[in-house]
Specification:
The protein is 61% helix and 3% strand. With 209 residues, it is mainly alpha-helical. It is globular, with a radius of gyration of 20 Å. The N and C termini lie far apart (42 Å). The N terminus is likely disordered.
Length: 209
């Protein structure tokens, strides 16, 4: 007698989630990654396969106004990465950190082999925003324009929060969009750096899932 239960339809096979990591182990991995990736990022400013190419300002860049106070949004990217690490640890899932590591490895390799920088922009930040730009000049490197790591890591942070804390999805997306927009309004990147950063983020996320 045939079974009354209908056979389930075939579905796309999903990669099984790895065994959960202890929270402390994920936090430790995040801290170690910060130290290692920061060192490699700084080294990319000195070790170049060739001289950095200057990326011209596009018609989009000229249409986007310079907004000096958005440098603080640009700098908030570091806090957003802390949020990514915290949510990964809370979910006991190291895969978002693997995605960050892969994204950074791809970007830093490009900075080494094909360094790029932006042209001079006639900006005049106010006294408060100037403090942010002075801090940024100490943290940033002039040969890391394409792809934008601010864009790729902000996108990965938003994707992580949306995956492990759905109730905070809108906040994460809004913050990521603000950081991405600030790369243009603070004139730290050209318009072509943004889709390149998003492409690196998408590839890294797909590979590590």
């Amino acid at each position: 007698m045939p079974s009354l239960r209908e056979a389930p339809k075939a579905s796309r096979r999903e990669t099984p989630r790895p065994a959960p990591w202890p929270t402390e182990r994920v936090l430790l991995l995040g801290a170690l990654m910060f130290v290692v990736l920061s060192s490699l990022y700084s080294a990319a400013n000195v070790l170049h396969w060739r001289e950095p190419a200057v990326l011209p300002w596009t018609i989009v860049d000229r249409a986007v106004p310079f907004v000096d106070w958005t440098v603080w949004i640009y700098l908030s990217h570091f806090a957003m990465q802390g949020w990514l690490v915290w949510e990964s640890a809370r979910a006991r899932d190291p895969r978002p950190l693997f995605a960050v590591a892969l994204s950074a490895a791809i970007s830093i390799s490009i900075f080494f082999a094909f360094p790029t920088t932006t042209g001079a922009w006639p900006w005049a930040p106010g006294p408060v925003s100037a403090l942010g730009f002075n801090l940024l000049s100490r943290l940033n490197t002039p040969a890391n324009s394409l792809p934008s790591m601010h864009v790729s890591l902000a996108a990965l942070a938003a994707a992580t929060v949306a995956r492990v804390r759905p109730s905070r999805t809108l906040v994460a997306i809004a913050w990521a969009c603000a950081v991405i927009a600030s790369t243009l309004t603070a004139k730290q990147h050209t318009a072509v750096d943004v889709p390149a950063g998003l492409a690196v983020a998408w590839l890294s996320w797909r590979i590590t899932r």
